[in-house]
Automatic annotation (TrEMBL):
<dbReference type="InterPro" id="IPR029063">
    <property type="entry name" value="SAM-dependent_MTases_sf"/>
</dbReference>
<keyword id="KW-0808">Transferase</keyword>
<dbReference type="GO" id="GO:0032259">
    <property type="term" value="P:methylation"/>
</dbReference>
<feature type="domain" description="Methyltransferase type 11">
    <location>
        <begin position="201"/>
        <end position="295"/>
    </location>
</feature>
<protein>
    <submittedName>
        <fullName>SAM-dependent methyltransferase</fullName>
    </submittedName>
</protein>
<dbReference type="GO" id="GO:0008757">
    <property type="term" value="F:S-adenosylmethionine-dependent methyltransferase activity"/>
</dbReference>
<dbReference type="InterPro" id="IPR013216">
    <property type="entry name" value="Methyltransf_11"/>
</dbReference>
<keyword id="KW-0489">Methyltransferase</keyword>
<dbReference type="InterPro" id="IPR050508">
    <property type="entry name" value="Methyltransf_Superfamily"/>
</dbReference>
<dbReference type="Pfam" id="PF08241">
    <property type="entry name" value="Methyltransf_11"/>
</dbReference>
Length: 358
């Protein structure tokens, strides 16, 4: 009995040691990534100077200026929580730091080259340029927009390829760590379960960054991505190696009570108010009883009053026509009306995550 206990203690210590090394690796990657994308984002701002000029967006807020100390603490929390989850064995180190110098330089160069076009669109206030593109015909009107003033909207391969660089530059390399707050909640919920029995779909998977993380964390689970954009689905398939479905989240092509989990990252702030309850109800419909939604999106001013001014500025400088209504939405009530109750919550920097159970 004593020998067995000793062996268990040694095994536990070995596992903790292995995870500690993984956490150190994750911290190292985070430092490299943050430095790289902070520099790229800073250079883009220097080139475009979006707050200057006659055509710069007008922004006024009654909220107090953001404390740099509070902003830095919120920013660092994303990386600290990410490394802590790796140390706890919830998921492996994620390979999202710049690892191939030539490819990283090309990606950053492409982002910077496009930054001028994005800024020109911002200064014109042209958030619906993409509606002139034949590829956008037949899609919902609210979807046919240049969200973030990005070139091509959701409809081109260049947009899909460039999207992650834009997001990482915007958030100084913290985008992946922020998204993984939803992964953290799901991993804790699924801990100890046989992955081979689990089925999940990443709704609005975009270019596949979060689906890639899911596949790394749950390599034996049945995972798929779903999005409305063929271009983004192609990028997501390449990145994650998982199956894809092209569909509108308002009408999921899935059977009732068929999934153990749905994940949904950064979708709801880009939906009109009338559409959010429809999508919430569809997600609830396809979940099994006891199934969960791992949800992540922007923090709201009520979550971070000290960052309210920054949150209010976001839709002024990045075309986000539905963000204002999202900021005031009671998410617990929204999902509660669909039959989902909050079973867990987390946040880091500018992202909040909820685990909602059917």
């Amino acid at each position: 009995m004593g020998q067995a206990s000793g062996r268990n203690d040694r095994l536990g210590a070995e596992r903790r040691g292995a995870f500690a090394l993984d956490a150190a690796a994750q911290r190292g990657k985070a430092v490299a990534k943050a430095a790289w994308w902070t520099a790229a984002g800073g250079l883009a701002k220097f080139i475009t100077r979006p707050t200057e000029g006659k055509a710069a967006p007008r922004f006024a807020s009654d909220a107090p200026p953001v404390s740099r100390g509070r902003l830095r603490r919120a920013y660092m929390s994303a990386f600290e929580k990410d490394a802590a989850d790796v140390a706890a064995g919830l998921y492996p180190p994620m390979e999202d730091a710049p690892s191939h110098p030539a490819a990283s330089i090309l990606k950053a160069w492409d982002f910077l080259a496009d930054a001028r076009a994005v800024d020109e669109r911002r200064r014109r206030g042209d958030g619906v340029e993409v509606r002139d593109d034949p590829k956008s015909q037949g899609y919902p009107a609210y979807y046919r927009q240049n969200f973030h003033y990005q070139t091509g909207g959701w409809f081109t391969a260049d947009s899909a390829r460039r999207y992650d660089a834009q997001v990482e530059a915007l958030f100084s390399g913290a985008a992946g760590a922020m998204r993984r707050r939803a992964l953290s909640l799901l991993a804790r919920h699924w801990r100890g379960r046989d992955q081979r029995d689990l089925r999940a779909v990443d709704v609005a998977c975009g270019s596949g960054a979060f689906l890639h993380d899911l596949a790394r964390a749950f390599p034996r689970a049945g995972l798929a991505g779903l999005d409305l954009s063929p271009a983004y689905l192609t990028e997501a398939r390449t990145r994650s190696g998982r199956g894809m479905m092209q569909a509108n989240a308002e009408r999921l092509p899935l059977a009732d009570d068929s999934l153990d989990a749905v994940t949904c990252v950064y979708l709801f702030h880009e939906l009109p108010p009338r559409v959010r309850p429809i999508v919430a109800a569809e997600i609830a419909r396809v979940l099994k009883p006891g199934g969960v939604l791992a949800f992540a999106d922007s923090v709201q001013p009520s979550d971070e009053p000290q960052l309210a001014r920054m949150l209010e500025a976001f839709p002024a400088y990045f075309h986000e026509p539905f963000y204002g209504s999202y900021a005031e939405t009671d998410l617990e009530a929204l999902f509660g009306a669909a039959g989902l109750r909050v079973a867990g919550r987390d946040k880091a920097f500018l992202t909040k995550a909820l685990l909602l159970e059917k």
